[in-house]
Amino acid sequence: MNKTHVTVLEIDSNAIIHNFRYFKSIIKPTTKFLGVVKAFSYGNESVAISKILEQEGADYLAVAFIDEGIALREAGIKLPILVLHPQTETLHHLIPYQLEPNLYSFRVLNEFINILNKEAVDSYPIHIKFNTGLNRLGFSATDVDSVIAILKNNPILRLTSLFSHLVASEDLNERDFTLFQINSFKKIATQITEQLNSKPILHLSNTSGTINFPEAHLDMVRVGIGLYGFGNDAAETSKLKNVGVLKSRISQIHTINPGESVGYNRAFISSETLKSATIPIGHADGFHRNLGNKAGYVTINKQKAYILGNVCMDMIMVDVTHIACKEGDEVLVFSSQENVEDLAARSGTISYEIITGISQRIPRVIN
Ligand SMILES: *Cc1c(COP(=O)(O)O)cnc(C)c1O
């Protein structure tokens, strides 16, 4: 399919390198860097990007699920890989691939101990997560003593890191809450490191935490969206380079006469003579249906061509009445961070969802 599909997502390796080096420049030389490559590197391409991060000297990678980590190992990635959300049913798959689990509850912790005992594996690297306010995954502060007791009794576990996750680090109106989270985490970490007499890596900051809260860098930062070019505000984004360009080509051009309609359900009816172009990208590709009916646009020959009628599964039709173009011409769905932010705003979502939602049907081309 890769060679025949004309809609492609081009990925700029140099932009990844630039963004990685930018984050390295705002953390201390001794602070480690974990690159978050879950969900196909936020819809980009995780093997190529992990290789770049490995070459550039990242210290860690993180994925959400075990299968994502296995895919990286099978592609030859050697960096330590933290699996943020492993499932108890499949924990045993971690071991042959040297994937390091986040053990976020007693259920997962005890199950992993059982597995290590069964497989007679010793000193396996694990990560423990504490919930400091997101209420998503993690032990609570009241679990600290029990967690310490379990770790003391089970030397088959090697506590490699302790971490938590910030709720609203991009929102400076929530600064007090973020500072509360930083303090809560530091207290928990101090209790554990003192009582276990060990020095796990402490980490707390996602992209915005890394940008906005230097006091939360601790021993390592976990950067996801920033690597892919988004700083969560315009000033920070301008320091980052755009990574993905989503492009396609015009399949066909139609003349639409007054009174004729375009697309399903006759959602657009023309009152004048128009020229429409059909583009091979649709809602099955992650091009949101609510961008239809002129809510969204693509760019053809540097001009905006708005969507006529409904977005189909595999196609859109756009208005090119005033754009000089012909069948086969290039179409840009987005080619800058501003385009992605604009698409996100127009479809009522955030840049994360736009880029992670680009379907796997669209080939990724690494430049
Ligand atoms: C996804 C994720 C990150 C990365 O967040 P960004 O805002 O994309 O930098 C960091 N930590 C955890 C636990 C995550 O789930």
Jot down its keywords.
four-stranded mixed β-sheet, TIM Barrel, 11 helices, 367 residues, Lyase, Ornithine Decarboxylase, Chain A, domain 1, binds pyridoxal-5'-phosphate, single chain, alpha/beta, eight-stranded parallel barrel
- Report the major sheet: 8 strands, parallel, barrel
Strand content: 15-25%
Query: Which hetero ligands occur in this complex?
Result: pyridoxal-5'-phosphate
User: Would you tell me the structural class of the helices and strands?
Assistant: alpha/beta
What is the CATH superfamily classification of the largest domain?
Alanine racemase
What is the third-level CATH name, the topology of the largest domain? TIM Barrel
The rough form would be described as elongated
Helix content: 25-40%
Task: Please write out the topology.
Elements: E1 8-11, H1 13-26, E2 32-36, H2 38-43, H3 46-56, E3 60-63, H4 66-74, E4 81-83, E5 99-103, H5 106-119, E6 124-129, H6 144-153, E7 157-163, H7 175-196, E8 201-205, H8 207-212, E9 220-223, H9 234-237, E10 244-249, E11 252-256, E12 261-262, E13 268-269, E14 274-279, E15 297-300, E16 303-306, E17 316-319, E18 330-334, H10 337-346, H11 351-356, E19 364-366
Helix pairs in contact: 1-3, 6-7
Bound molecules: pyridoxal-5'-phosphate.
Pyridoxal-5'-phosphate binds next to strand 9.
